[in-house]
Design brief:
CATH class of the largest domain: Alpha Beta
Distance between the termini: 42 Å
CATH architecture of the largest domain: 3-Layer(aba) Sandwich
Strand order of the largest sheet: 6-7-8-3-9-10-12-11
Structural class: alpha/beta
Protein name: ABC transporter domain-containing protein
Number of domains: 2
Radius of gyration: 22 Å
Main location: membrane
CATH topology of the largest domain: Rossmann fold
Number of helices: 12
Helix content: 25-40%
Bound molecules: adenosine-5'-triphosphate
Keywords: ATP-binding, Cell inner membrane, Cell membrane, Membrane, Nucleotide-binding, Translocase, Transport
Membrane topology: Peripheral membrane protein
Family: Belongs to the ABC transporter superfamily.
């Protein structure tokens, strides 16, 4: 074997070992059996919008939550932040941050955790700042509301963070939000989210409102700062491209249920659940010519089986058992699937 080949193999093994180590550390966020429900009225019929969801994220790990619109990604993110709409509630489960169940915290305690230990970046970055107050003042006030520091010290920290997100710090510090471009504003909201050095960042569709290049730059920045802070990131995105490119692990949701999860590389190279396979096939790939048709996912979006695997009604491979047992089962190293067909036959979505 040539020296170059040996070195390449050693680097690959080292990367695999790093990944193994990542998945073996204790999670920052652990969600156990989480269900989110809508009740028609008090004591009325319950509609489960998120069903018995389990996932965990470790320090330094970026987990992508993928799935079609309406699959329950944002509700999951909102539940972690304690920001579910009033009409909805967590009907069962636990959301643990470093072992502490957020669902047992008071509004005040949750408010303290949110924005400090758990940071969030949303698609509508315009809402991150109050329109008629300068960015600098807002950052200084936020810093001083969580930590007992002097104004000059807070200003120093705010300027430092604006620099860390690669903005002209002094200029942005004295600007009003409307004087910034969309990309600048999203970077400033990244600074606002990260300046407390959170253990978990929830990024819900952070690039949807930005053009492709600006969005990529924001995600580069997020990835770089995540490494520096060694924090966990939950990246919610309906854009599979971002999830496949950026994340260490991913969970695919359909109809409020995780149908498959695990290391992103494993799911990309060897998806086991028919929905994951179809989702991967349905994404636009540049090498296709304009005349080639993307594979479409059969059936109506939003058609959800009430029992068993939520995708069963649209699945080309479903059989009786799929309507009964939705249990996750191992489907490889660092990969779990809710598909009953995995052991039964080779899953072939061309069938
Ligand atoms: N306030 C609400 N009241 C009733 N139903 C809701 C409410 N918010 C969300 N839902 C429903 O819950 C389901 C999951 O919604 P959610 O916003 O989590 O989807 P999503 O996967 O984030 O979709 P998108 O990518 O479009 O944001 C959808 O069927 C949605 O209609």
């Amino acid at each position: 074997m040539s020296a170059v080949m040996t070195l390449t193999k050693e680097i690959a093994t080292e990367k695999e070992n790093e990944k193994d180590a990542l998945f073996r550390t204790s999670p920052v966020l652990e969600i156990k059996n989480l269900s989110i429900s809508l009740y028609e009225d008090k004591g009325g019929e319950e509609h489960r919008l998120v069903k018995k969801l389990n996932l965990s994220i470790r320090p330094g790990e970026m987990l992508g939550l993928a799935g079609e619109s309406g699959s329950g990604k944002s509700l999951t993110a909102s539940a972690i932040l304690g920001l579910l709409p009033k009409s909805l509630s967590v009907s069962e489960g636990q959301i643990l941050i470093r072992g502490q169940d957020l669902l047992n915290l008071s509004e005040k305690e949750m408010g303290h955790l949110r924005g400090k230990e758990i940071a969030y970046i949303f698609q509508n970055y315009q809402d991150s700042f109050t329109p008629f107050i300068k960015i600098g003042r807002q950052l200084v006030e936020a810093l001083r509301s969580h930590d007992k520091i002097s104004k000059p010290e807070a200003k120093k920290q705010a300027l430092l963070w604006l620099e860390r997100v690669k903005l002209p710090a002094e200029q942005i510090f004295s600007s009003y939000p409307h004087q910034l471009s969309g990309g600048q504003l999203q970077r400033a909201s990244l600074a606002a989210a990260l300046m407390f050095e959170p253990v978990l960042i929830i990024a819900d569709e952070p690039t949807t409102a930005l053009d492709v290049l600006t969005g990529e730059k924001v995600l580069d920045l997020l990835a770089g700062l995540q490494k520096e802070l060694n924090c966990a990131v939950l990246l919610v995105s309906h854009d599979l491209k971002h999830v496949l490119k950026r994340t260490d692990s991913m969970a695919v949701m359909y109809g409020g249920q995780i149908v498959e999860k695990g290391a992103t590389k494993s799911l990309r190279e060897n998806p086991r659940h028919p929905y994951t396979k179809l989702l991967l096939k349905a994404r636009p790939i540049l090498r296709y010519t304009a005349l080639e048709k993307f594979a479409a996912i059969p059936g109506e979006p939003g058609l959800i089986a009430k029992e068993g695997c939520t995708f069963a009604l649209r699945c080309p491979l479903s059989f009786e058992q799929c309507y009964m047992v939705p249990a996750m089962q191992p489907a490889g190293r660092f990969q779990w699937t809710a598909c009953q067909a995995v052991d039964r036959e080779k899953v072939d979505t061309n069938a």
